[in-house]
Design brief:
single chain; 708 residues; alpha+beta; six-stranded mixed beta sheet; four-stranded mixed beta sheet; 16 strands; globular
């Protein structure tokens, strides 16, 4: 037993280092304390899970009225981690379930990386070093939001790490079955297809690592059957996730369309100054990159085919980081793939050195001992040089309830919960960190069932650009969270006009300057809570007849025209997103500034009811007149008792009632049902493949040939 353990000592050292390090960082007492996690974006994710619970598993995404004047929660994001939280919650309680799933990605990456290396064909030394260098990747402090490492997970990017861990397993299993074992039975494709579907449902950004790995698997004399198998895995994986991916791609135009400016420079890859404050120098990953370069040289010398996989992953991450243009995806989001490839190549470099030492029988014992010491040293160095990861875990998982501002925060939530149901806008301040995160007030709909204007998943909301313009006008400090939008300075009067457009019922002021501005603009105080003062905003109700008859805008330029309109709001501009739109008599044909007043607005009476998220009912005395519904427009809204709903400036809905009682409902459309059918068919096909077992089919059954 002792002799067998000694032969596997490097692997034992790697496993012990990974398990011990992760257990010390993610302390069991923190994981099980039952407090709601906070910190960074993580502190605001809870409203998403709460909302999904109302519809899951009937729908993968739901309408969330609690953020951004309503938004399609998880329509453009990834539902699997939240679904897993909900599955565990009845047994463990939601806070513990959240921590387990949020931690699952980073906690499993060492074992996924080691498994991937072993499945690719790496020797025992390389596999053991993979455990150590995975910790170098996880404890890398050179970036804190891009994905994969502990810092990013604590910042709220836990879905990325889950997906990355699954990608490593997918690559290893597929390579082993198709390239090394050359299995031709149909059941071989079942697990990779399911894994790929789970990856798409967890986070799409690590998918390029799987794509380049698949490409590396194709070349060879039997390339065509292998290509068919990989293509089938890809199609089935996409099919499993079709319920998410088809609606996402079809409706991508109805997002915030951020314009991230790329960050360039070779120093990015070691956390150098080119990161402009986003990244920091970090010794351990810099050393890992140097070792990875050595690994590439050894791979060329030894000509081991499997090393092409991590090399391709690292090069893909580097190319994406250096070449990806400005757009909705930030170029630095490719950087984690570079580090993952480097971790695997560095493991190979160290493994080759130890294997060379062990090649002489008299030095094999020295090699095992040296490898074990080196593995433990690398892991320890990675953890000890991390400035943020361990303390960030403690900060987040100690929970909202352990923060110094908890009592004030709790009192504010109670005060807001006692107000009438109306949308709430609040002044931004970095001092909210006292509550656990600067995003703490985004949880208003989690704690109180009241609606906050601001939330997470910024890119998923067409209202987000308008909101952050309004935030910059009503806060002494602002975030400018949607890149590419021109933000004004502080101008409370303009902000108040915008609040009325979005149907804001209450404004929460924090600083003395903003409180004074609210009073100067005539807002009545309705409540106080600690340092907060709550003002009432007379926004004309959540459904109203506009003062001017709407104008017809350019349907293809609605985004730019809406932002321009916000600079000087006047007559609403409608942008029909289909061939059917308002009739000419319902619109003002005049050109600005010759607007047509609507006398009906003077004595309009509209009573609004919201039975649940995604349903708006109202009764009006102005049948036939335009009514603006101050909820974000989206293609899945439909209306009964009115024409529409049409997209109207800045991002809201316009209807023309044909009767007194009108009902708007957000629900799945034919496209969503078709996508669900595709997912069910893909799952059925995978199930059939599992039943067929060892049977062979068509091109998949091509007979093996010698590769010489």
């Amino acid at each position: 037993m002792i002799r067998r353990l000694w032969r596997r000592m490097p692997l034992v050292a790697g496993l012990a280092s990974a398990i011990t390090g992760l257990a010390v960082t993610f302390r069991p007492d923190l994981m099980a304390n039952g407090r709601l996690p906070t910190g960074g974006d993580m502190g605001a994710h809870h409203y998403i899970a709460k909302s999904l619970a109302t519809e899951f598993p009937r729908r993968l995404w739901i309408w969330g009225s609690g953020w951004y004047a309503g938004m399609p929660l998880l329509h453009f994001y990834f539902p699997l981690p939240y679904a897993a939280m909900l599955a565990l919650s009845p047994v463990l309680g939601y806070p513990v379930a959240f921590k387990i799933i949020a931690t699952a990605g980073v906690a499993s990456i060492p074992f996924s990386m080691a498994s991937c290396l072993r499945l690719l064909g790496a020797d025992k030394y390389t596999t053991a070093f993979g455990l150590a260098f995975s910790l170098v990747f996880l404890y890398n402090d050179s970036y804190t939001i891009l994905g994969g490492n502990i810092d990013s997970t604590m910042a709220g990017e836990f879905a990325y790490a889950i997906s990355l861990s699954l990608v490593l397993l997918l690559i290893g299993i597929t390579y082993r079955r198709l390239v090394i074992e050359e299995r031709r039975d149909i059941a071989t494709l079942v697990l990779p297809s399911l894994l790929l579907g789970a990856i798409f449902l967890s986070h799409v950004l690590p998918v390029p690592a799987a794509v380049v790995a698949f490409a590396v698997m194709i070349p060879g004399r039997r390339w065509l059957p292998r290509l068919w198998r990989l293509a089938l895995i890809g199609l089935l994986g996409l099919g499993v996730a079709a319920a998410l991916l088809i609606p996402l791609l079809a409706r991508m135009d109805y997002t915030a369309h951020p314009k991230w400016n790329p960050v360039r420079g070779w120093a990015i890859f070691v956390g150098g100054p080119a990161c402009s404050g986003t990244c920091r120098w970090s010794t351990a990953p810099a050393a890992m990159v140097i070792l990875a370069a050595t690994g590439v040289a050894l791979a060329v010398i030894t000509r081991r085919r499997w090393t092409l996989v991590p090399t391709a992953i690292a090069l893909t991450g580097a190319a994406g980081t250096l070449l990806w243009p400005a757009g909705a995806v930030w170029n630095l989001r490719w950087l984690p793939l570079f580090y993952v490839g480097c971790a695997m190549l560095a493991s190979f470099a160290c493994g080759e050195v130890m294997k060379a030492i062990a090649s002489r029988s008299e030095t094999e014992t020295v090699a095992r001992g040296s490898a074990s010491i080196a593995i433990a040293a690398i892991a320890t160095f990675a953890m000890l040089t991390s400035q943020y990861a361990p303390s960030w875990v403690i900060y987040n998982y100690s929970g909202y309830q352990a923060k110094p501002g908890w009592e004030e925060y709790q009192d504010l939530m109670t005060t807001l919960g006692d107000l009438d149901d109306a949308r709430i806008m609040w002044e931004y301040s970095d001092k909210y960190q006292e509550f656990g995160t600067t995003r703490a007030l985004e949880l208003i709909p989690y704690w109180t069932d009241r609606r906050s204007m601001e939330g997470l998943l910024i890119e998923s909301s067409i209202t987000a650009p308008g909101h952050f313009i309004m935030q910059s006008e009503t806060s002494m400090k602002s975030t400018g969270a949607v890149p590419g939008v021109p933000y004004p300075g502080f101008d409370f009067e303009a902000g108040l006009e915008h609040m009325k457009i979005y149907g804001i019922g209450y404004f929460v002021a924090f600083t003395d300057e903003v409180k004074a501005a609210a009073r100067t603009n005539g807002l009545p105080e309705v409540a106080k809570s600690g340092r907060f003062t709550i003002f009432e905003v007379d926004s004309g109700g959540e459904v109203e007849v506009p003062r001017y008859r709407p104008l017809l805008g350019d349907r293809d330029a609605w985004r730019d025209q809406s932002l321009e309109w916000l600079e000087n709001p006047s007559a609403p501009v409608v942008f029909p997103q289909s061939e059917v739109g308002p009739s000419a008599k319902q619109l003002n044909p005049a050109v600005r500034p010759e607007f047509e007043l609507l006398p009906a607005a003077e004595d309009a009476h509209v009573r609004v009811d919201r039975p649940k998220d995604g349903v708006i009912e109202f009764r009006t005395n102005k049948v036939g007149e335009p009514h603006i519904v101050k909820e974000s427009w989206f293609p899945t809204w439909s209306v009964e008792g009115a024409e529409g709903p049409y997209l109207v400036t800045p991002s809201l809905m316009l209807v023309f009632p044909t009767q007194e009682d009108v009902r708007l409902v957000e629900k799945a459309r034919s496209l969503d049902r078709l996508a669900q059918v595709v997912s069910l068919l893909a799952l059925a096909a995978i199930g059939l493949m599992g039943l067929l077992g060892r049977r062979k089919l068509g091109m998949l059954a091509a007979q093996p040939q010698s590769e010489g």
